[in-house]
Design a protein that fits this description.
The chain is α/β, with parallel strands linked by helices and about 400 residues long. The chain has three domains: about 60 residues, Archaeosine Trna-guanine Transglycosylase, Chain: A, domain 4, CATH 2.30.130; about 120 residues, Transcription Regulator spoIIAA (2-Layer Sandwich), CATH 3.30.750.80; about 190 residues, Vaccinia Virus protein VP39 (Rossmann fold), CATH 3.40.50. The strands form four sheets. A seven-stranded mixed sheet has the order 16-15-14-17-18-20-19, sandwiched between helices. A hairpin with a 5-residue loop joins strand 4 and strand 5. The longest helix has 18 residues.
Length: about 400
């Protein structure tokens, strides 16, 4: 198969020699022909030496590298990559745990498949494209996935309406590429939940907080828990299993609250310990008293890009300051940022400033990140997006 060729400016291959999977538009000297958005292109140095092959896209990241070898990007390529990703999930025990049928199978650059996310919920795989190339190749990827996981997967749902660059005129439609089951109950470490892959955020559930929810369970005994930005209630039902005295779930979305209530009922029907409120986080924090001794702050990404960083850090400071002000002495705060542009140091400084403003004595018990099924490619440190701190507040 012949591909269009992209030639780099002199010296611009250095990051590729270090296996970084992105090529920025400014590094390109010229392109032979006119590749379409999402087409596969070969990349050459200024000395005309092959260095990579990947998906072309108009924008600041012009090529997302699929391979540093000269090979065809075809069904057998996708099958081998997906097989490697699945093997890793089996090796770390997450895809073979009898109490758990929910995990991330493909995590973009972390699995050397930039622009592709696949989450598994019981017998359904939810596939999401974040690049034009993954959208263009979706049918072949789906075919490869159906072959590799023939025994495990009955349905493949494609969910990319909100994740693709709107300027690319790709017109993605969400829908089943295989199967079509309406059974959307999955299990995480023995707890059941409904997955809203039709209209929910991300692929329908925040798989990346699994290990952090499990940790929270161990701290919940006899505590009064506030789960702020609860979305589908994940932290809430773990807190209940951990023996919390009471659990309040808060989210500004009425739909999220409805889903939280359904999920809590699946695991703890008619349990009087739980109540859920559809309310703005800051309003709720302002009017609440000091009744909570375990608070979870898991807000949506405050910053999607670098320009929003300053405002995001102000948001984290303000949010955490309220929690420090209101949490009971001896309380535990689980606080997170899932913004990729907010570094670990940025986030820690924002939380540190909030603690200092409150004047409380605060100790770090845990520094949290994303779980092993959301791996970070060692050559692409930008892939570490989830940051969390567990704090003990005197």
């Amino acid at each position: 198969m012949s591909y269009h060729k992209v030639f780099l400016k002199s010296g611009k291959e250095e990051s590729l020699k270090r296996f970084h999977p992105w090529i920025f538009s400014g590094a390109i000297a010229r392109i032979n022909g006119e590749p379409e958005e999402g087409e596969v292109v070969e990349v050459y140095t200024s000395k005309k030496e092959f260095i990579a092959i990947g998906h072309f896209q108009i924008g600041s990241i012009a090529v997302r590298v699929l391979s540093f070898q000269q090979e065809s990007i075809d069904l057998s390529f996708w099958k081998s990559r997906l097989a490697v990703a699945w093997q890793m999930r089996k090796d770390i025990g997450i895809a073979t745990n009898p109490t758990n049928n929910t995990y991330r199978l493909v995590h973009g650059e972390g699995d050397n498949l930039p622009g592709l996310i696949i989450d598994v919920y019981a017998k359904t795989a939810v596939m999401q494209a974040h690049s034009a190339g993954m959208h263009v190749d979706r049918m072949t990827i789906s075919e490869a996935l159906a072959e590799v996981m023939a025994e495990e997967i009955e349905n493949i749902y494609y969910k990319s309406e909100t994740t693709l660059p709107y300027k690319a005129d790709l017109f993605p439609e969400n829908g089943f590429l295989k199967g079509g089951s309406a059974d959307n109950i999955a299990q995480e470490y023995g707890l059941k939940f409904h997955v809203d892959w039709l209209k929910g955020q991300k692929t329908g559930f925040f798989v990346d907080q699994r290990e952090n929810r499990s940790l929270l369970e161990h701290y919940s005994k006899n505590r009064s828990v506030l789960n702020m930005f609860c979305y589908t209630g994940g932290f809430s039902f773990y807190a209940m299993r951990g023996g919390a005295k009471l659990v309040h779930s808060v989210d500004s979305s009425a739909k999220a609250i409805e889903l939280t209530n359904r999920n809590v009922s699946l695991n703890f029907p008619d349990d009087p310990r739980h109540a859920a409120y559809a309310e703005d986080a800051f309003k709720y924090l302002d009017r609440m008293g000091g009744e909570y001794d375990l608070i979870v702050l898991d807000p949506p990404a405050f910053a999607k890009h670098k320009d929003a960083l300053r405002n995001a850090l102000q948001g984290y400071r303000k949010l955490n300051a309220k929690a420090f002000e209101k949490i009971k002495p001896g309380g535990i705060l689980f606080t997170f940022s899932c913004s990729q542009v907010v570094t670990k140091d940025n986030f820690r400084t924002a939380v540190f400033t909030a603690a200092a403003l409150s004047g409380r004595k605060v100790r770090i018990l845990h520094q949290l990140t994303q779980p092993a099924d959301h791996p970070v490619n060692i050559y692409h440190p930008e892939g570490e997006y989830l940051k969390g701190l567990v704090l003990y507040v005197e």
